[in-house]
Amino acid sequence: MTPTSTALLTAAIVCNGLLAGTFFAFACSVVPGLRQVDDATYVTAFRAVNRAILNGWFLTVFVGAPVLAVVAAVLRPDGAATGWLVVGAACAIATFVITAAVNVPLNQRLDAAAADSPTALVEARRAFEPRWNTAHLVRTLTSVAGAVSLAVAVVV
Hints:
By secondary structure, the chain is an all-alpha fold. The protein contains five helices and no strands. It has one domain (about 5-155). About 30% of the residues are buried.
């Protein structure tokens, strides 16, 4: 592998690993923790998390993961298994699409939802939580599969 292709593939593995780890940690800790709180706390906490995640560090990794995975698959560094690179890129793209098509719009709807009464809070949570958690689980699995596939491409 050339130094450039090695650096790109390494960056793809790191970004996809960081993203998978972020989603995995959220699925294993934040989601179960929020299941145990009342509706007002849930909506307030989730809105705060949605705002906090929109930072340069996360967005760099979130956008970098699929871009770098695709670049690595296109460049096909010598010694890396092309099939695994393609699977890794496909999983990274799937993670991005799920987030953009499902999680982000749900986040935006939760942010815009009325929260001025107990009934409004129940409705906001009910319209958000089950669908968001399902999409989050799927994107967690695709992000882990993407990171693993890119790493396997180097060792097979």
